[in-house]
Amino acid sequence: FLAKQACRNIICDFAVVISIILCSILANIVFKNIPTETMNVPDSFAPTFQCCDSSCHSSFPLDCPDQEEAWGRRPWLVDLGDTGGKPWVPFIAAGSAMFAFFVVFFDNGITWHLINHPSNKLTHGNAYNYDTIV
């Protein structure tokens, strides 16, 4: 039964996907009388934050309970110039981002030197430096 290596490799590679599909089929066909919780998915693909007014600083319906319907949805693109009256926020964020970059950069370099030490006797394939390109 499934003695060929190719069949075993396919099942091994797609085991999670196969199990999700099989369990979904079982839940919807065999056990359809048992209530199961499903994920709430909106009918349209749009931002979920609904605004009370055109400034879009307040959330509908929590911040404006007297309003019957939302003004609209938050736009897809974020205004990077709107710091909410706090002009120091981009500089603090840039400093934190530079610190994180240096930590990851040095971690990658130190790991590379430890792994490629001559005592490990590693040989490298054709795709050796692809991690740097990506």
Automatic annotation (TrEMBL):
<feature type="domain" description="Bicarbonate transporter-like transmembrane">
    <location>
        <begin position="5"/>
        <end position="133"/>
    </location>
</feature>
<feature type="transmembrane region" description="Helical">
    <location>
        <begin position="12"/>
        <end position="31"/>
    </location>
</feature>
<protein>
    <recommendedName>
        <fullName>Bicarbonate transporter-like transmembrane domain-containing protein</fullName>
    </recommendedName>
</protein>
<dbReference type="Pfam" id="PF00955">
    <property type="entry name" value="HCO3_cotransp"/>
</dbReference>
<keyword id="KW-1133">Transmembrane helix</keyword>
<dbReference type="GO" id="GO:0050801">
    <property type="term" value="P:monoatomic ion homeostasis"/>
</dbReference>
<feature type="transmembrane region" description="Helical">
    <location>
        <begin position="88"/>
        <end position="106"/>
    </location>
</feature>
<keyword id="KW-0812">Transmembrane</keyword>
<dbReference type="InterPro" id="IPR011531">
    <property type="entry name" value="HCO3_transpt-like_TM_dom"/>
</dbReference>
<dbReference type="GO" id="GO:0006820">
    <property type="term" value="P:monoatomic anion transport"/>
</dbReference>
<dbReference type="GO" id="GO:0005886">
    <property type="term" value="C:plasma membrane"/>
</dbReference>
<dbReference type="InterPro" id="IPR003020">
    <property type="entry name" value="HCO3_transpt_euk"/>
</dbReference>
<keyword id="KW-0472">Membrane</keyword>
<dbReference type="GO" id="GO:0005452">
    <property type="term" value="F:solute:inorganic anion antiporter activity"/>
</dbReference>
